[in-house]
Amino acid sequence: MKPKKLLLISFFALTASSAVAQFKQVIIPYYDQATELYGYKDSALNMAAIPAKYQYADRHYEGLARIQQNDKWGYIAFSGKEIVPAIYDDALNFKDSVAAVKQNDKWGYIDKTGKVIIPFQYAIATDFHEDRAAVSNGEFWGFINKKGFLGIDYMFGYDENVYPIFKEGLANVKFRDKYGFIGVIGQIIIPFNYDYALPFDNGLAAVQKDYKWGFINKNGKEIIPIKYEIGGNTFPVFNEGLTPVSVDNKYGFVNRQGKEVIPLIYDYASNFEKGKAPVRLGSQSFYINTEGERIDD
């Protein structure tokens, strides 16, 4: 009988843990039109959990949410308890247990207790990815670790459309108006041959040359030829294994192997989400599934 009792206790412990996790996930921000303020509600019960009293309220990341009060930013827990007072001029969400915050026109980093762990010294700061964050001195980008050590010096060009990020061991960076990829100690891995380059995602990175897009692997080999146009001032991204592409203003979808799995016959197409993507054919706008079949909204 003892093993059954232990199993029963374990089951209740697992259920309780799951319930707590689920509770955390349903606390989401909402906007009160009457007061023009933000609060948090339990989406499962559709009830206010934290009163609408913030200028802005974000979702929770790693257990903490950005909130804005009196034009200043801070962080609260799921319960609404103030963890980091709203004292900062700007703030990013927590990632890898740290967050970039701005004070007196400079950025630094804090931990989840609100302790400043990297002083306010940067013109721009970004999230940590793979234990490195891109920071700017106002003219160039470099990379720091969580101790604030500048492991890769300020040498890479600034572009307001694309921030450098380390993903899968490589970072997309700009040097002398061209993009390429560097490794963790700043060594050049893929030469600076591109007009734009996005971070790697599952072994592929989107790159642009002469206004045409394609995808390369970590060896710099073109897996998807650089021949596609991207409309609507958007960057190519794979959702559900497919990305919209166009040639001569006709849209379709390719997979990660570069195969055009949905023909380029549409006058417009956007990314897949929850199994469907919006397209336009002539005067008709509708959705298709990942097989290219027309579906109801």
Oligomer: single chain
Which strand-content bin applies to the residues?
A: over 45%
Sequence of strands across the biggest β-sheet: 4-5-6-7
First-residue to last-residue Cα separation: 54 Å
Runs with pLDDT <50, length 5+? Answer: 1-24
What profile does the largest beta sheet have? Answer: 4 strands, antiparallel
CA-based shape: flat
Q: Quickly count the helices.
A: 1
Query: What is the share of helical residues?
Result: under 10%
Q: Please give the radius of gyration in angstroms.
A: 23 Å
Written description of the protein model:
- The structure is a single chain.
- The protein has a domain at 26-122.
- The protein contains one helix and 30 strands.
- The protein has one helix spanning 2-26; strands spanning 27-32, 37-42, 47-54, 56-61, 64-69, 72-76, 82-88, 90-91, 98-103, 106-111, 116-122, 124-129, 132-136, 140-144, 150-157, 166-167, 170-175, 178-182, 188-194, 196-197, 205-209, 212-216, 222-228, 242-247, 250-255, 260-266, 268-269, 277-281, 284-288, 294-295.
- The strands form eight sheets. The protein has a four-stranded antiparallel β-sheet with strand order 4-5-6-7, with no helix packed on it. Strands 8-9-10-11 form a four-stranded antiparallel β-sheet, with no helix packed on it. A four-stranded antiparallel β-sheet has the order 12-13-14-15, with no helix packed on it.
- It is flat, with a radius of gyration of 23 Å.
